[in-house]
């Protein structure tokens, strides 16, 4: 299994096409090729955090500054960022457009990812965070754009779950 | 030295800055000096005030950003010091009021109590170049003025007494604070 070069490019192009100018992220295997492109592209600024919860604060700062921002993280990073999502973003009605690599789900061979993968959807539902699964490379760019639009209009965190179908060849 | 005294000294300098405070006593003491549209009070999500400040500073290079943090909050997000050091926003001053106590949650000891953990040393170790520990009001005032004139990321660890205001309360709803803070920034961008 290798990370899809082609679909990583489609996701990256989709992020840019959605008008995003800065991205905060914690590197993750599935997100690696997207982040490499972000690092190399002068039109997009990548802010790499030490832990995902920091990115919730950075995203709030970007929102206050009126700059279109997107967060990239693994689902375990999402789980690690929950207090920031609840007690900053949701408490203050700050939008978050989160692209989350859904590890530990259908087809997962690695035991260490499985528990996080199993609970991710339930946690999103418990937090009333709207989410979609991204499976089809033909649709993912529109899904990214729609996630961003909805986060801004609802002033809410929104999650797009990047699945194995999309991220691996 | 009391945090309220530091804030009183700093207050005139905050006139044209964007300010992010942590919860509780620190937010209240700043609010009591007189709310400004350029103040954002993070009343929860401990640890993220400095991350908000970093997001503001990186996206608004023309503005100067001041974060009013505390030992309890920064201990919850020590990684932030490494991210600040890495991106080194030239327009950010990060003030950590270290009262060696979790004052707002009952005055329990914190890891900095009796100097066990040295936050200034952690900030230096994280790679932040300009770090000062201030033990007196004079030292704090000098360090703050220097930092605000410096075109670089600065951290001040201000050792303050574990005391806070007698009364808490703001005539400001939390989302209202966020909406108005953002509108104020966008108005400033257009001006």
Question: Can you offer a commentary on this structure?
Answer:
The complex is a heterodimer of chains A (169) and B (191). By secondary structure, chain A is an alpha/beta fold. Chain A has a single domain (5-167), classed as 3-Layer(aba) Sandwich (Rossmann fold). Helix content of chain A is 50%, strand content 18%. Chain A contains 8 helices and 6 strands. Chain A has a 6-stranded parallel β-sheet, with helices on both faces. In chain A, helix 2 (32-40) links the parallel strand 1 and strand 2 (45-48). Chain A is globular, with a radius of gyration of 14 Å. The N and C termini of chain A lie close together (6 Å). The model of chain A has no long low-confidence stretch (mean pLDDT 98). With 191 residues, chain B is of the alpha/beta class. Chain B has one domain: Thiamin diphosphate (ThDP)-binding fold, Pyr/PP domains (Rossmann fold, 3-Layer(aba) Sandwich). Chain B contains 8 helices and 8 strands, in the order αβαβαβααβββαβαβα. In chain B, strands 2-1-3-4-8-7 form a 6-stranded parallel β-sheet, with helices on both faces. A two-stranded antiparallel ribbon of chain B has the order 5-6. In chain B, a hairpin with a 5-residue loop joins strand 5 and strand 6 (108-109). Chain B is globular, with a radius of gyration of 15 Å. The mean pLDDT of chain B is 96. Chain A binds chain B through residues 22, 24, 45, 47-51, 53-67, 69, 83-84, 86-88, 91-94, and chain B through 40, 42-45, 47-60, 77, 79-80, 82-83, 86-87, 174-175, 177-179, 181-182, 185-186, 189.
User: CATH fold name of chain B, please?
Assistant: Rossmann fold
The total strand number of chain A stands at 6
Q: What is the CATH homology-level superfamily of chain B?
A: Thiamin diphosphate (ThDP)-binding fold, Pyr/PP domains
- The fraction of residues in strands of chain B falls at 15-25%
Approximately what portion of the residues of chain A adopt beta-strand conformation?
A: 15-25%
Note the run of SSEs of chain B as H and E.
Answer: HEHEHEHHEEEHEHEH
Please, what is the average pLDDT of chain B?
Answer: 96
Gyration radius of chain A, in Å: 14 Å
Shape of chain B: globular
Q: What's the helix-strand series of chain A?
A: HEHEHEHHEHEHEH
